[in-house]
Structures are given as C-alpha cells and as structure tokens.
Specification:
Largest sheet: 4 strands, antiparallel
Helix content: 10-25%
Number of helices: 1
Order of helices and strands: EEEEH
Shape: elongated
Radius of gyration: 14 Å
Length: 88
C-alpha cells in the first residue's frame, strides 16, 4: 500500500471516517465504516461493491491492529494542493 494513501478524517464510537487517495486522482473518496453494525459506505462512483477504497481502508486498519487512531490524519499526511495559473 502506498504511504499515506489512507488517512483518518474522524472517529467516534459509531463510525470511522477515512479518505482513500487512489494514485493519479485529485479527490480522495470517503469511506465510512460502522464497526458496531458491520456496515460500510463509500462515496466513489465505482459500481462494484465492495470497492477498492473499502478494501484499502480495511487493509490499512488491519495493518494498524484495527486502531484507526494509529493512521495519519489529513493534517499530518503531508498532502498539499497547489494551483498554478498563467495567462495565455
């Protein structure tokens, strides 16, 4: 798995919200896991369910012994968005 591809957005007793950034895409889909209900959701437009974003989120959590808090957050993942404009 790529470093920092899965980052933790938020976590509480009912849900874990993760962002999964596929290579070459500017927007990271949001994966929401509901551990108590064994349910999940992803806002991607892929028709196959479960999608690769859910798989990546599950793998990232399993590599951290199921602890979402061990994942980097959006603020600490080191991602930067830069806009460069020029007149033509």
């Amino acid at each position: 798995m790529r470093a920092d591809a899965v980052v933790l957005e938020s976590q509480d007793a009912d849900e874990i919200v993760l962002r999964v950034r596929p290579p070459g895409t500017p927007v990271a889909p949001t994966v929401v896991l509901y551990p108590g209900e064994l349910e999940w959701d992803c806002d991607c437009h892929v028709k196959v369910r479960p999608c690769e974003h859910l798989a990546a989120a599950a793998i990232a959590l399993s590599q951290n012994d199921g602890e979402a808090k061990a994942l980097k957050t959006a603020e600490t993942a080191g991602g930067t968005l830069v806009y460069r404009f020029r007149s033509a």
